[in-house]
Amino acid sequence: MSELLNDYYCLMTITVPLQIIDLHGDGYHPLVEIKVNGAPYILVLDTGASKTAFDHDTLEQSGALIEASERLSTGLGVTNMSSSTAVINDIQIGDLHIPGFEVAVLDLSTINVAYRQLNHPEVLGVLGGDILVKYSAVIDYGKQTLSFHIGQ
């Protein structure tokens, strides 16, 4: 019955492809293509990340306004690190447009160093729980898709 109610309240579903990359014996990462203010990037889909986070240097090169934050970030293999934030005018994931969204801005260069060593594409950052929960995201590893449910 709850599934029927969920379908009733969901006005639209947007589904985008995932690329599942092999970390050569160290697991897998799902990647999703996005656009930030019209420019294409790749994010790691990270269900363990509470907040979407973008790499400081890459975001700075895009011309985004980055502001220092007084909050310390936890995770990503460290107990705490200083972070910044940026409000992104438009994040686009498939047909989903997310205007004026605040992201964490961190030094994620070590992720790209590791990806380069494994011959994987560089990423802008991670797609976190803030967006995944807001849009009731569903990951289908079998079909290699990510679906967002919009409406209520």
3D structure, described in words:
There is one protein chain. This protein is an alpha+beta fold and 152 residues long. Strands 3-4-9-5-8-7 form a six-stranded mixed β-barrel. A three-stranded antiparallel β-sheet has the order 1-11-10, with no helix packed on it. It contains four helices and eleven strands. It has helices at residues 2-9, 56-61, 109-117, 129-134; strands spanning 12-17, 19-22, 28-36, 39-45, 53-55, 66-75, 78-93, 96-106, 125-127, 138-140, 145-150. The chain has one domain: Acid Proteases (Cathepsin D, subunit A, domain 1). It is globular. Strand 6 (66-75) and strand 7 form a beta hairpin.
The low-confidence parts are 1-5
> What level of helicity do the residues show?
10-25%
Number of strands: 11
How do the SSEs run, as a string of H and E?
HEEEEEHEEEHEHEE
Anisotropy-based shape: globular
Largest sheet: 6 strands, mixed, barrel
Which superfamily, in CATH terms, is the homologous superfamily?
Acid Proteases
| CATH 2nd-level architecture | Beta Barrel
CATH class: Mainly Beta
Distance between the termini: 17 Å
What is the average of the pLDDT values? 86
Which features does this protein show?
globular, alpha+beta, six-stranded mixed beta barrel, 4 helices, 51% strand, disordered N terminus
